[in-house]
Specification:
It contains 24 helices and 17 strands. By secondary structure, it is of the alpha/beta class.
Length: 654
């Protein structure tokens, strides 16, 4: 029986020789080494090539051990062989011997199952790593052919692991796993942002939107669901990180155990990758060579840098204003004496009038409303504005329209609202000729932007006396909010005409349940909507069904337009001027991939002189803009409106 003998050193008294531990196979010996080292490493089958000595496995070079035969033998070792410290003889600790014995016993009892489990977990680890490296960042791109590629990052990672000693390799594997987990989270965020907001996630700007997303879920699905979802997301992220770290550690140890084979495999894979890249070879319609992960990190890094630079540049831009120094008596002289109402309809986008599923009902409503307004003496002109936002973040559309600045992210919004840039609503206030009021049923807490908009008074959800049910996110139906606007604001006697800023919310996603029109005289405190709300669709049923979401979205726009135009017929006067528009397109799941960012805008008035002032805009007659009607950027509207109604520019340069 082969036996390894300790080196004899005359000055040291010999110690008791360690007991020989029987090791039936080569894979069992590898398992012993792993247990002694304090780490569980994958163990190859009994007939696998075992490379390296115990000293090589543990990063030491002084200990030497003879090759282990593949058959059952009694392996007698010293502490020098086990721990890589030559000349010291010590028996393994009893608890260690017990653990090793139990492990070997399990393998002896179920050798096939044990081997299958090891290979299954190794395959799972490889699939997780490769899948993460090849995962796209949009749902339409999530196709099988995206996972038939060779990722350069996997080849580079293998080379790095093979070249590092044990502890640096362990650290590198952990960092690599954490990086893969973070990449997966970013890709999933990209999918969500593309699906809802039509753009990718911005690590420099979009963390501020996560609390708003949770608030939306709470308003839509309930507070308990929102809290559970938030906790679930955190747990899943931590679990993802742990699983990816496990996968990279397992694969790194496997690479080292089969060092020569892994080195040859990495060389072959690298050669194939370079060849496929040079020749542009494809498989199933996709390039075989991939650097998807590195490309994604580069895009996000560049996006972050650009965003930080943009923030500083925008702060300077916001200080400059073509009407910043215009005296109040030179602002909007051609609208003096008019009650002007700026109204935003939530998610009212171009898709509402052009999508084949949505448009028929909406266009019919617009035609009927145009005719009804004409019978009441009102006429309208309509065009298109390209919104600064898409799918959500309505406040960006509101502020862009009113400020004349392109406000397409939360940092820009915070920057501009912290300053004194002239908004269109504030221009009315600056003249001293109008009272200025905001009606915002979607605001449920303090709203500091009230001052930036130049509003003398704000009526939010707490000020309108509503006692009826919520309709998902919307706190109250548009018809009720408009009736309260009439009773509390527009219909009141006052010394000055009124400029109103009204935000309607019934067409906010998820479009379930939806309110319906009731008799205006029966609105009361809103309790009349109880039965309508209870009979409506459940939000969870609509959110998960794209076709129904599109249908219900169309119905919500029909309801909001009908509420507003009926209010105009009922309460509008010779001096009422209504400007209403959408804030953004609905989410991509409803408006479609690659949909435009255009929203309709209409000006309605009874006085023909008002529409004559915008005749050179070449807008379409009626409430439905033609497909080829002029399209402006949303930030251009403020200056065009001020100019059309007689304002004189006096620029401020900041």
């Amino acid at each position: 029986m082969p036996e390894t003998k300790p080196e004899t050193r005359p000055e040291v008294e010999p110690r008791t020789q360690a007991r020989a531990t029987p090791v039936p196979t080569a894979e069992a010996e590898a398992g012993v080494g792993a247990e002694v080292a304090g780490e569980a490493e994958p163990v190859p089958p009994a007939d696998a090539e075992v490379e390296g000595t115990a000293a090589e496995i543990h990063g030491e070079t002084k200990a030497h051990a003879e090759p282990t035969p593949p058959t059952d033998t009694a392996v007698e070792g010293t502490a020098a062989e086990i721990h890589g410290a030559a000349g010291v003889i010590a028996a393994p600790r009893p608890i260690l011997r017990s653990r090793i014995a139990r492990r070997l016993a399990r393998r002896d009892r179920h050798p096939v199952a044990s081997r299958g489990l090891r290979w299954a977990t190794t395959a799972l680890a490889a699939a997780l790593v490769l899948g993460t490296l090849l995962l796209p960042n949009t749902l339409p791109a999530l196709e099988p052919n995206r996972f038939t590629r060779i990722p350069a990052e996997a080849i580079i990672g293998a080379v790095v692991m093979l070249g590092l000693p044990r502890w640096p390799r362990l650290v590198a594997a952990v960092l690599y796993g954490v990086g893969l987990g973070a990449l997966t989270v970013v890709n999933l965020l990209d999918m969500g942002f593309n699906e809802y907001l039509g753009r990718g996630f911005n690590a420099a700007l979009d963390w501020d939107l996560l609390p708003d997303a949770q608030s939306y879920v709470a308003d839509t699905m309930g507070g308990a669901f929102a809290t559970g979802a938030a906790v679930g997301v955190v747990v899943l992220v931590l679990l993802l990180m742990a699983v990816m770290v496990w996968a990279t550690i397992r694969l790194s140890e496997l690479l080292v155990r089969y060092r020569s084979r892994a080195s040859r495999g990495a060389l072959v894979a690298g050669t194939v990758w370079i060849t496929c890249t040079a020749l542009g070879l494809t498989l199933f319609g996709s390039p075989i060579a991939s650097d998807r992960a590195a490309g994604a990190l580069k895009v996000h890094a560049q996006r972050t840098v650009d965003s930080l630079r943009d923030e500083a540049a925008f702060a300077q831009q916001a200080k400059a204003d073509s009407f910043g120094n215009t005296p109040g008596d030179q602002l909007l002289p051609d609208l003096r004496g008019k009650d002007v109402i700026f109204t935003f309809i939530e998610s009212y986008g171009r898709s509402a009038t052009e999508d084949p599923v949505i448009a028929p009902g909406v266009n019919k409503t617009l035609d009927v409303s145009t005719k009804a307004l004409a019978e009441a003496g009102f006429h309208a002109r309509s065009g298109w504005l390209t919104s600064a936002t898409y799918g959500g973040s309505s406040w960006l559309g509101h502020s862009t329209t009113m400020s004349g600045l392109w406000i397409d992210n939360q940092r820009r919004y915070r920057t501009v609202t912290a300053g004194d840039h002239l908004t269109l609503t504030k221009a009315f206030s600056k003249t001293g000729a109008w009272d200025t009021v905001g009606v915002m049923p979607g605001v449920q807490k303090g709203w500091p932007e009230e001052k930036w908009y130049g509003l003398d008074k704000l009526y939010d959800s707490r000020d309108l006396g509503y006692q009826g049910p919520k309709f998902s996110w919307s706190t109250m139906p548009d018809q009720y909010a408009l009736e309260q606007f009439q009773q509390r604001v527009h219909g009141m006697e006052r010394d000055k005409p009124l400029m109103s800023f009204v935000i309607l919310t019934s067409s906010h996603q998820p479009w379930a349940p939806l309110p319906k029109m009731v008799d205006w005289d029966q609105l009361g405190d809103g309790s009349v909507f109880d039965a309508i709300q209870q009979a409506g669709n459940k939000a969870a049923d609509i959110i998960t069904d794209t076709t129904r979401s599109r249908q219900e979205y169309g119905k919500s726009i029909e309801y909001s337009v009908t509420s507003l135009t009926q209010w105009m017929e009922r309460y509008g006067t010779d001096d009422t001027v209504l400007v209403f528009l959408g804030d953004h397109q609905p989410i991509a799941r409803v408006s479609g991939d690659n949909a435009s960012r255009d929203v309709p805008i209409s000006v309605v008035a009874k006085d023909p002189k008002v529409l004559e002032k915008i005749a050179d805009w070449n807008w379409t007659d009626g409430l439905k803009p033609a497909k080829d009607a002029p399209v402006w950027r949303m930030d251009s509207f403020r200056d065009r409106f001020l100019t059309a109604f007689g304002s004189t520019p006096h620029p401020s340069k900041g």
